[in-house]
């Protein structure tokens, strides 16, 4: 058969649910980009197809992602742990958390007006708490055996005490600026959250599992590269051991002779942790010179 007329096999692809627009969208898109997955993001479109990786993107509200993944509408999703816990109450075994992603970090915290007599968690007993996270907040107080009444709001939770509809709130906090703008005082964190890559627990084909694994490996490579630096320097031959101890987690360095300088070597290595100025100063004191610290784009091992 002429190769031109041969029917093309439909290769396996996997669908990933992403937040359409919000705090996780840009980070999620950046992550895919750095993992070498190029997508076209056209405004108004609710889907996108990666050009060089078997991944289709579905752009939705973050609250819908856990359910879509649990039900297999999407094989994978990127969502905050807070949303996962709130939307999949009692159904968490329908998904697997594949990887923490290190962005979208925040905490679900209890807060009260500055003037409130509330000082500790137990002081909330019999009070009204406004929240968009009634499930998580409810479980928290139930576990402690404290009775509270929850006022569920879709947003602008921080204005509830001033409106007289609650004595306290339970809301997401990242910098704490919103709380202080509204003269609210944080009492306790009930849950720490970050964005995670989740996968459906439904059975998948080998091809689908392979794609998921490949994506996970690429993301791990991006995360390791983001944390690591490549460090190069010239140093006295006898200082090599001292230098290795100065750089935490340094892998076996490459040592090369220097032209016309018997006593010194060039040392190159991947440092898996950030290199601080104090370390550079210690390296200089150990005799290192021409120190270069450069970012790494990818680490594949
Ligand atoms: O439209 P859609 O439903 O998709 O989005 P959304 O409005 O529900 O969510 P969005 O985009 O606001 O947040 C998406 C996810 O980002 C959340 O589910 C969290 O996992 C994560 N995240 C991280 C945050 C924050 N930080 C955060 N600070 N989500 C919300 N906030 C809000 C918080 O509710 C409060 O109003 O920011 C305010 C507090 O911020 P600070 O910095 O003043 O403390
Ligand atoms: Zn939402």
Describe the structure concisely for a colleague.
This protein is an alpha/beta fold and 301 residues long.
Please give a structural write-up:
The structure is a single chain. The protein is of the alpha/beta class. Helices cover 27% and strands 32% of the residues. The chain has nine helices and 15 strands. The strands form three sheets. Strands 2-3-1-4-11-5 form a six-stranded mixed β-sheet. A five-stranded mixed β-sheet has the order 8-7-9-6-10. It is globular. The two termini are 42 Å apart.
Helix/strand layout:
Blueprint: E1 14-19, H1 25-34, E2 47-49, E3 55-60, H2 65-70, E4 76-80, H3 81-87, E5 95-100, E6 106-113, E7 128-131, H4 134-144, E8 149-152, H5 160-163, E9 168-173, H6 177-181, E10 184-193, E11 195-200, H7 206-227, E12 229-236, H8 240-246, E13 254-258, E14 261-271, H9 277-285, E15 289-295
Parallel strand pairs: 1-3, 1-4, 7-8, 7-9
Antiparallel strand pairs: 2-3, 4-11, 5-11, 6-9, 6-10, 12-14, 12-15, 13-14
Strand content: 25-35%
What structural category do the secondary elements indicate?
alpha/beta
Averaged pLDDT, please? 93
Strands, count: 15
Low-confidence stretches: none
Number of helices: 9
Order of helices and strands: EHEEHEHEEEHEHEHEEHEHEEHE
> Which molecules are bound in this entry?
phosphoribosyl ATP, zinc ion
- How do the strands line up in the largest sheet? 2-3-1-4-11-5
Apparent shape: globular
In this structure, how is the largest beta sheet organized? Answer: 6 strands, mixed
As a percent range, the share of helical residues equals 25-40%
- Rg measurement, Å: 26 Å
Distance between the termini: 42 Å
């Amino acid at each position: 058969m002429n190769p031109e007329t041969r029917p093309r096999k439909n290769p396996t692809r996997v669908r990933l649910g992403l937040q359409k627009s919000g705090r996780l969208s840009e980070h999620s898109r950046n992550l895919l980009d750095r993992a070498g997955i190029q997508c076209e993001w056209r405004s108004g479109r609710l889907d996108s197809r990666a050009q060089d990786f078997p991944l289709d993107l579905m752009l939705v509200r973050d609250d819908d992602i856990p359910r879509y993944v649990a039900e297999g509408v999407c094989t994978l999703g990127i969502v905050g742990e807070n949303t996962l816990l709130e939307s999949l109450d009692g159904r968490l075994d329908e998904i697997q958390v594949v990887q923490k992603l290190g962005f979208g970090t925040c905490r679900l915290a209890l807060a009260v007006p500055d003037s409130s007599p509330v000082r500790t968690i137990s002081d909330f007993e019999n009070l009204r708490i406004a929240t968009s996270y009634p499930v998580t907040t409810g479980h928290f107080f139930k576990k402690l055996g404290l009775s509270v009444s929850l006022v569920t709001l879709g947003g602008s939770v921080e204005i509830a005490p001033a409106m007289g509809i609650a004595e306290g709130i339970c809301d997401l906090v990242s910098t704490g600026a919103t709380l202080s703008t509204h003269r609210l005082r944080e009492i306790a964190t009930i849950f720490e959250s970050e964005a995670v890559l989740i996968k459906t627990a439904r059975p998948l084909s080998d091809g689908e599992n392979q794609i998921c694994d490949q994506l996970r490996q690429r993301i791990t490579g991006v995360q390791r590269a983001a944390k690591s630096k490549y460090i190069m320097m010239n140093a006295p031959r006898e200082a090599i051991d001292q230098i290795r101890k100065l750089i935490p987690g340094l892998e076996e360095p490459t040592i090369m002779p220097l032209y016309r300088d018997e006593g010194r070597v060039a040392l190159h290595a991947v440092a898996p942790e950030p290199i601080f100025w104090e370390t550079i100063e210690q390296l200089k004191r150990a005799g290192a010179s021409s120190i270069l610290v450069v970012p790494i784009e990818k680490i594949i091992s």
